[in-house]
What we know:
Layout: H1 10-19, H2 28-38, H3 42-53, H4 58-66, E1 73-76, E2 79-82, H5 83-98, H6 106-116, H7 126-136, E3 140-145, E4 159-162, H8 168-179, H9 184-188, E5 198-203, E6 206-213, E7 222-228, H10 237-251, E8 256-262, H11 265-272, E9 275-276
Parallel strand pairs: 7-8
Antiparallel strand pairs: 1-2, 3-8, 3-9, 4-5, 5-6, 6-7
Amino acid sequence: MKKNSYRFTNRAERIIDLLKEYDNIIQPYHFLIGACEEATGVCGELFLYLYQQVGSNFMKQVEEACEAQPEEYIEWNELNITFASLKVLERANEKKENYGQTLINEGHILFAVLELEKNLRNVLSKEMLNHIFQIACTPRDLTVHLDGYLHKPLSPQNEIRRVTPSDLPALKNYIRVEFGERWLEHVNHASNKEEIPIFIAERNNTIIGFACYDLVRNQKSIFGPMGTSKDKRCQLVGRELLDTCLVEMANLRYPYAIIDEAGPVEFYEKACNAKLIPVGQ
């Protein structure tokens, strides 16, 4: 397998780099341990949960429950990994594709581990596995403090502007084609607003992304949904849209913004210093 056949977020890359420090042939459970050792964002929350629920030696317990006799392995990305571990990466990539995302993140990897590593059930209860899934493998809410939030100058190649009523038909069609029907209900809330709380990104008069606020459940202070065209991702489009909306929300004197059900958690952590809202709160 070629080293660059998969693309990862920075956090997922750090997990894989930690595995390079192991002497072992990498088995599926190593991805879980590597995530706990990475210990930032959802991985830090995962570490604390397992530490509290299983004990300070939870990594040793996971290893003893899951360690198997080394099978045949292949070399991948400077690692010797079993074919079961290769299956974890393949399944993680499938999850990424199912969500229409560009990069494999820690949630995709951990989902695959929970699904494929059956021996985890010897040390983790069904309730624990479900809670791990909620921590690491589902969209999460985050919060951004807006006091003193300032505009971040980014790429000049994207034209960002507020949506007008005449833009709504084209925007709805764009959303339907790029993302399906799921976000249209939020945009429909905008038609009776005096000032539409949606910004779009354009290139050559063509919509390439959008972002909303105050539309989810028709509640103020909630950011989202946001989406960018698949072929325009990793080109600062999302960052510019996010920043524009947060500046507007700060100007409205909102003390904070809630980012609703974010899939790419790490993107928001880096782009605007967003903080995870713990599961259950």
